[in-house]
Amino acid sequence: MSDESEVVRFALLNKSCFATKRQPDRVKKAVFFSLLFLFFLWSLWPGEYRITGSLSNQDREEIENILDHAEESFLPLFKLDNNFQLHIHVCKDLQEFLKLTGASWWNGGHFQNQIIFIQRPEALREREILEQTLDHEFLHYCISRVGGNSVPTWLNEGIVLNLNNEMPGLDCDTKATGIPLGKLDEALHGKDAEAARAAYCEAGRRVRRMIMENGFESILHSLDPRKSFCLVINY
Questions:
Q1: Helices 153-163 and 181-188 sit at what angle, rounded to 10 degrees?
Q2: Which contiguous run of DSSP H or E holds residue 52?
Q3: Is 191 or 92 the better-scoring residue by pLDDT?
Q4: DSSP label at 69?
Q5: Structural domain spans, the chain
Q6: Rg (CA), the chain
Q7: How far apart are CA 38 and CA 175, in angstroms?
Q8: Are 124 and 59 in contact (CB under 8 A)?
Q9: CA–CA distance, 197 with 189 (Å, rounded to integer)
Q10: Are strands 48-53 and 85-90 parallel, antiparallel or unpaired?
């Protein structure tokens, strides 16, 4: 074999090796862009709900529809994506609700440990608060995604009452409570319905004043557990 042939053969072998080495890079790029596309599709997919408890198919469908609407309404306010799985447990009766949540009888729902507990849909429909209750607890879930467990109860409830437009229903404008901020969280956990209602009104009024003077963006910023609550404790 001539020297020229050896040079050509060497060049071809090296080209082949070079192509073999580059092939994994092309595969990696293809996998990367495929995963990126799948992530994009996943981000467009709505959140998933795991609903447990004794309920009819009709109740299940109604709850899912209410939560789908809540997702569309509230997630953008908190700048949250819809990649989540949320557990909703429908209690079979008031006794189970009280036992599982430690809440009061007048609470239609309760959010704890990343689970939404609600009383029987029939009972909430009789009080005309099924949608309001699910929206209320879904808002607590949104706040937990932003601030974790670091958000004071009065601020948490005050935000929910204002965003869910529950202040008029509580007749808050006629209730002058004057509960000091340092005792407000304790008052919100009270078992007396009227006393708790007054505490909810006080929390709602404080947050409404904050929203009017600073805007919701400032409150959203203060929910970050890495930030202090110096903005809100002045109210």
A1: 70
A2: strand 48-53
A3: 92
A4: H
A5: 1-44, 150-235
A6: 27
A7: 52
A8: no
A9: 10
A10: parallel
Q: What are phi and psi of 46, to 5 degrees?
A: -65, 160
Pairwise CA distance, residues 110 & 89, whole Å: 10
Contact 154, 181 (CB under 8 A): yes
The Cα–Cα gap between 127 and 61 comes to: 20
Which tens digits make up the pLDDT trace of 202-233?
A: 999 999 999 999 999 989 988 877 665 555 45
Beta strands 115-118 and 109-112, pairing class: antiparallel
Q: Per residue in 151-210, pLDDT tens?
A: 999 999 999 999 999 988 887 766 666 788 888 998 898 878 888 889 999 999 999 999
Which amino acid is residue 187, in one-letter code? A
Residue 227, H or E segment: none
CA dist., res. 169 & res. 200, Å (int): 11
Location of structure tokens 């509960």: 179
Backbone φ and ψ for 85, nearest 5 degrees, come out as -125, 125
